[in-house]
UniProtKB/TrEMBL annotation:
Lineage, uppermost ranks: Bacteria, Pseudomonadati, Pseudomonadota, Alphaproteobacteria, Hyphomicrobiales
Name of the protein in its database record: Ornithine cyclodeaminase family protein
GO molecular function, one term: oxidoreductase activity
InterPro entries: NAD(P)-bd_dom_sf, ODC_Mu_crystall, ODC_N
Annotated source species: Undibacter mobilis
GO biological process, one term: carboxylic acid metabolic process
A Pfam family matched in the record: OCD_Mu_crystall
Length: 326
């Protein structure tokens, strides 16, 4: 198979600014194609991208934040994701997080596309987890446990199923009704999904444990993990959040999406580091290392692996460029 060529959005006269809805994003970005595009983007590497920047824009005593995530390939394409977090929106019947992605032509700087940011984020985040799983989970992994019932949890099982023979999905959430609803949705996508009530029992049954929560307390306990399990930690994205306990990190071979992002934002790594239980050297590799072959992935059938992601701007740029090409 020939390597994927980088996206070159060549100037050819007046450029039409295109708008992509969430439905457009999900329809165009199938997981096999997006996973392959991310693999090539991380393999190539390139210059380091800025870590996500956050700004306090609160007012009248109400908290609010603006986040920016820029990325570029010089002379080819560039883009930025704009994210707002307004926790008080729940009282207005609105979601707390809103986002928009803007893609520009890399030769002229002219805007090319405005894209629904939530759909793009969900899609590329799930694809990045599946990319990591293709190196870190056992090839015969068939049972996936989905911890969490939010929007991203709808996308992670299908993405993992694109790289592994998943024939059973267990769904756990703090709200049993939401877990059952997610299981029904996944069934509609062709996955054999079942809601479960006992998280500890489900962890012990899973080949892949995927977490997408905003928890500040450990949900995955390392002592329950069977040899050969892969743990996919996606939800916690601040130093104060975490989804697994210290024992998980100490038992596992640890990989991240990017070292810079993980060492700034990943509470699952930073908290055991602050306790003196883990060092930065414990991170065996990132997605560039895996995709380029600089470091090996899973080393044997019994190894426990962890992939911790906090999100990388190059993933948004890659997904947006693929969307425009499609």
């Amino acid at each position: 198979m020939e390597p994927r060529r980088p996206c070159r959005l060549r100037y050819r006269g007046p450029i039409l600014l295109r708008n992509f809805s969430g439905d457009d994003v999900h329809a165009a970005l199938d997981y096999p194609s997006l996973i392959d595009a991310l693999r090539e983007a991380f393999r190539q590497g390139g210059e380091p991208m800025p870590v996500r920047q956050a700004y306090d824009v609160g007012f009248a005593g109400a908290p609010a934040h603006l986040l920016t995530m820029p990325a570029w390939q010089r002379g080819q394409t560039l883009g930025v994701k704009l994210v707002t977090v307004f926790p008080q929106n729940a009282a207005r019947g609105l979601g707390a997080v809103s986002s928009l992605y803007v893609l520009f032509d890399g030769e002229t700087g002219v805007p090319r596309a405005m894209i629904d940011g939530e759909a793009l984020t969900n899609r590329r985040t799930a694809a990045a987890s599946a990319l990591a799983s293709s190196y870190l989970s056992r090839p015969d992994s068939s049972t996936l446990l989905m911890v969490g019932t939010g929007h991203l949890a709808h996308h992670l099982p299908p993405a993992h199923a694109a790289v592994r023979p998943i024939d059973k999905v267990l769904v756990w959430g703090r709200n049993g009704e939401r877990a059952a609803a997610l299981a029904a949705t996944l069934q509609g996508k062709g996955l054999a999904a079942t809601a479960v009530g006992d998280l500890d029992v489900a962890i012990a049954q899973a080949d892949i444990v995927s977490c997408a929560t905003t928890s500040t307390q450990a949900l995955v306990r390392g002592r329950l993990l069977r040899p050969g399990t892969h743990v996919d930690l996606v939800g916690a994205f601040t130093p104060q959040m975490r989804e697994c306990d210290d024992n998980t990190m100490l038992r596992a071979a640890v990989y991240v999406d990017t070292r810079a992002g993980a060492l700034k934002e990943a509470g699952d790594i930073l908290q055991p580091m602050a306790a003196g239980l883990l060092s930065a050297d414990a991170i065996r590799g990132d997605l560039h290392d895996l995709a380029s072959g600089a470091v090996p992935g899973r080393r044997d059938e019994a190894e426990i692996t962890v992939f911790k992601s906090v999100g990388a701007a190059i993933e948004d740029l890659t997904a947006a460029s693929l969307l425009v090409r499609a």
